[in-house]
Write a structure and sequence with these properties.
The protein is built from 9 helices and 10 strands. By secondary structure, it is α/β, with parallel strands linked by helices. Strands 6-7-8-3-9-10 form a 6-stranded mixed sheet, sandwiched between helices. Helix 5 runs parallel beside helix 7. The chain starts with a helix and ends in a 5-residue tail after the last strand. The chain binds adenosine-5'-diphosphate and magnesium ion. The site of adenosine-5'-diphosphate has 11 residues, from strand 2 and helix 3.
Length: 250
């Protein structure tokens, strides 16, 4: 063997099949996913060896005490952040193979996000915020208008269409984010404590909307610590200190 090859590590054997799951595979697959945030003093293990499959059309809740990793879990699913180790397949494709531009495209096409941190754009109107994902997707102007009008009506904000998000209450801003998420008719809906800023009536309406989207075939993944909404999910994922556990912890 040539001297320069002697110390060389063998390339990992990577099968093409492993990068792509079959059509009957899960819409979301995490294998041994960990997320560690490095700090000056100490590191935080936000997710610790999480392995889970979520199938098309499932309605899954993610619960656990504050700091257990719910938002981190959903951020990874939404491709807003990357795992420190482990692998994630979305829609049958290994996401570690995606370039940054592809990640945004996949997110825009397949995923609807209702995240507290995934903010509305302040210098666009409510209408424009809701329209934006459709514009990115190349939906025609007439179709955009029909869909945005319907979504705003659905969340009760038609009268606010011309306002900027900053002039709305926290609850109303949350509803704009909801309208933006549903107007794209996403195959996967990820929501991080979406009822947190809402009064109970709006919260119930929102949960009914999620149930309806799920009946229409969407996969829903909802982080919440509100027991009223946990029951609506057909499967519950419980997190504790970043790990998946079998039953809820107090
Ligand atoms: N960007 C970050 N930098 C450092 N630590 C973080 C960051 N995001 C989350 N964490 C930490 O990771 C853990 C999980 O946080 P998070 O996913 O927000 O939990 P939850 O949504 O369940 O309250 C917490 O200890 C939190 O402080
Ligand atoms: Mg959170």
């Amino acid at each position: 063997m040539a001297w320069w090859r002697r110390g060389e590590r063998k390339p990992a054997i990577e099968s093409k099949l492993e990068d792509t799951l079959g059509p009957d595979g899960p819409v979301i697959r995490l294998q041994h996913v960990s997320k560690i945030f490095q700090g000056d003093e100490e590191d935080t293990v936000a997710l610790d060896d999480v392995t889970v499959d979520i199938h098309r059309g499932e309605y899954v809740s993610v619960s656990g005490p504050s700091g257990c990793g719910k938002s981190t879990f959903l951020s990874l699913l939404a491709l807003l952040d990357t795992a420190t180790s482990g692998r994630y397949w979305l829609n049958g494709q290994a996401t570690d193979r995606l370039k940054p531009g592809d990640r945004a495209r996949v997110r825009n096409l397949d995923v609807g996000l209702i995240f507290q941190s995934f903010n509305l754009i302040g210098d666009m109107t409510v209408y424009e915020n809701v329209e934006y994902p459709l514009t990115l997707r190349g939906v025609s102007a007439a179709e955009r208008q029909a869909r945005v009008d319907a979504a705003l009506q659905r969340v009760g904000l038609s009268a606010r269409a011309k306002q900027r998000p900053g002039s709305l209450s926290g609850g109303h801003q949350q509803l704009v984010a909801v309208a933006r998420a549903i107007t794209g008719r996403p195959a996967i809906l990820l929501a991080d404590e979406p009822t947190g800023n809402l009064d109970s009536k709006s919260g119930e309406a929102l949960m009914e909307m999620f149930a309806e989207l799920n009946r229409g075939g969407a996969t829903v993944c909802l982080a919440t610590h509100d027991p009223r909404w946990l029951a609506q999910a057909r499967r519950q994922i419980h997190l504790f200190d970043g790990r998946m556990v079998d039953s809820p912890t107090p």
